[in-house]
């Protein structure tokens, strides 16, 4: 069966790292059909729209999407694309890799971020000259869907359970509903959980990241706390992510467009290639996924390396080295 | 002129570190009148109320309040107490001290946290069985008041300006109003600012805290990001804070009740004593404030030390050593 893969490179180094990840996928000789589409600052400058309707439609119909990065228009691109794939969870692994300078190299975390609501539901009003409001939305159904996913996730691997991170001591009704629902689903599935307030989590993860493993949290908490974990492992440069929906999914590196190095052919393609490995696993190619993960890790360890990791290899050199190791 | 100081020890080690800070203030022989009041889990267990009306009234009329910590009831105690002093800004310095193990010892930050609104304004509803909402409120007037304070703050010391941390790419109207207002006030005062998204801040402060100095941010961002900074400097143990209102203020250590060591007489009083030094500065006793800061720093460096810092001194030993150094 052919899988259709939407490829949306976007802006900046997205134009360099996304084709690199496609090269790796092509090298696996799986029956993929790649369809490319535009999004981001450049297409907005041309057409007035950061996310053309045909790009949205493509992501909404392809089996999986590989996205690079967008510049100023990032929110206008990625938030609708997450909706296009009906993605209810953003899976964000944050682990340190050999060869990468990290303040907490022992960090190895998986964030399961609610991906549809919270402040991102985004009903905002300017009530008066003085007063603006935003309606934060938390539903039982979205919390359940996330919790079901989290229970499957920890069952399928060697995890002891998960931590529910929230701020229900202040957001009693909304984060209270989130916490109670996720806890109930976990209890029903015999999955162990503990609870941590999001501010306490921020302190504790810096002091000792090994006390955490899988973290289930609302949308903005997941955004900020996974970026905090990125800081502990040495930056956004190597972090992949998966936006999972019931029928399709979108994969993207956590890094941005890196305007300072864009166009020079020296961007590190690792995060996007690891995202492609997550795509392979999502589509059921577990062995190929494992191979790509191993090839990337071997390349991070033994080189060649791009300048961000102290080497002088090009994006193309690193991509070739990864393909050679498959 | 006598200053009335409300003293609210609260629960756990609050009962040990708050009297220690009062001892230090008494040793200065300034004309203070200390009035003690109850709040927290213990008084709730007795009377059904975590924050008795007379405690609220005392904080609302005293010149300054020194608060220790509250347990399970923390939010029921500290949020109304912040309202009692009409506190519009929470000043949270996060710096590493000699003798304290820190993952980023070069951290030296001041958070100026909006202290009245954001998600803490807290209008929540359960619309249906499935749907809960919270109305996040951001006003131009509160943002202006905070910005005015921030401009004075950076003028009075050797700061180059401040960073505005927000999430206006998602919360466009509310955090947009916050950002635009703070920036306008800063521009009008000739104060330099830069802008950082709160997720990017979380990454960047771990990678290199020295790129930041004074941070002005909404309420929840300030809560989480200052606790993140606490993680970088080795924990909440030594961090003080000041909740400043137009006519009065409340000072509290950032740490909690530490139930594991409460009642043993070995709690580290440093954070509360540094909070008392901030109280002295607030009331205009700049020299006494400086003396207390120096006595605490000398004691952290040369001992005696409580067990959290690897020593075996008691709260009382450390307090006496600080007083001896005044
Ligand atoms: C670009 C922005 C809207 C986005 C988010 O906040 O989700 C980004 O920070 C991310 O985490 O992917
Ligand atoms: C106890 C809680 C309500 C409080 C807050 O969120 O403000 C605490 O975390 C703090 O930062 O002082």
UniProtKB/TrEMBL annotation, chains A, B:
Does the keyword Oxidoreductase belong to this entry?
yes
Molecular function GO labels: 3-isopropylmalate dehydrogenase activity; isocitrate dehydrogenase (NAD+) activity
The protein's matches in Pfam families, at most eight in alphabetical order, are given as:
Iso_dh
**Family assignment?**
Belongs to the isocitrate and isopropylmalate dehydrogenases family.
Q: What class of enzyme is it?
A: oxidoreductase
Oxidoreductase in keyword set: yes
Which example biological process does GO assign this protein? tricarboxylic acid cycle
Return the PANTHER family for the record.
Answer: DECARBOXYLATING DEHYDROGENASES-ISOCITRATE, ISOPROPYLMALATE, TARTRATE, ISOCITRATE DEHYDROGENASE [NAD] SUBUNIT ALPHA, MITOCHONDRIAL
Q: Which parts of the sequence belong to the Isopropylmalate dehydrogenase-like domain?
A: 4-322
Q: Which domain of life is it from?
A: Archaea
The EC number(s) given in the record are 1.1.1.85
Which SMART domains does this entry report, sorted A to Z?
A: Iso_dh (SM01329)
The record's keywords, sorted A to Z, are:
Oxidoreductase
Listed InterPro entries = IsoPropMal-DH-like_dom
- Originating species: Natrinema salsiterrestre
Listed name of the protein: 3-isopropylmalate dehydrogenase
């Amino acid at each position: 069966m052919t899988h259709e893969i939407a490829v949306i490179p976007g802006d900046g180094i997205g134009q360099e790292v996304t084709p690199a990840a496609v090269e790796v996928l092509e090298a696996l000789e799986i029956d993929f059909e790649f369809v490319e589409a535009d999004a981001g600052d450049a297409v907005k400058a041309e057409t007035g729209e950061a996310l053309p309707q045909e790009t949205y439609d493509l992501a909404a119909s392809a089996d999986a999407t590989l996205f690079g990065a967008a510049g100023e228009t990032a929110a206008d691109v990625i938030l609708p694309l997450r909706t296009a794939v009906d993605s209810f969870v953003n899976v964000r692994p944050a682990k340190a890799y050999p060869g990468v300078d990290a303040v907490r190299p022992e960090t190895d975390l998986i964030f399961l971020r609610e991906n549809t609501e919270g402040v991102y539901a985004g009903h905002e009003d300017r009530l008066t000259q003085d007063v603006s409001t935003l309606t934060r939305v938390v539903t039982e159904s979205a919390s359940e869907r996330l919790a079901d996913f989290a229970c499957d996730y920890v069952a399928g691997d060697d995890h002891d359970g998960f931590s529910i991170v929230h701020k229900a001591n202040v957001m009693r009704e909304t984060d209270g509903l989130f916490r109670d629902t996720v806890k109930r689903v976990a209890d029903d599935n015999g999955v162990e959980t503990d609870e941590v307030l999001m501010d306490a989590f921020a302190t504790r993860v810096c002091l000792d990241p090994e006390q955490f493993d899988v973290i289930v949290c609302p949308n903005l908490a997941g955004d900020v706390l996974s970026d905090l974990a990125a800081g502990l492992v040495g930056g956004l440069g190597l972090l992949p992510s998966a936006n999972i929906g019931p029928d399709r999914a979108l994969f993207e590196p956590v890094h941005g467009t890196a305007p300072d190095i864009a166009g020079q052919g020296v961007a590190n393609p690792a995060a996007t290639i690891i995202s492609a490995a997550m795509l392979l696993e999502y589509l059921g190619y577990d062995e190929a996924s494992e191979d790509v993960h191993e090839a990337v890790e071997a390349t991070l360890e033994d080189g060649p390396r791009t300048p961000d990791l102290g080497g002088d290899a090009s994006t193309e050199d690193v991509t070739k080295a990864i393909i050679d190791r498959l």
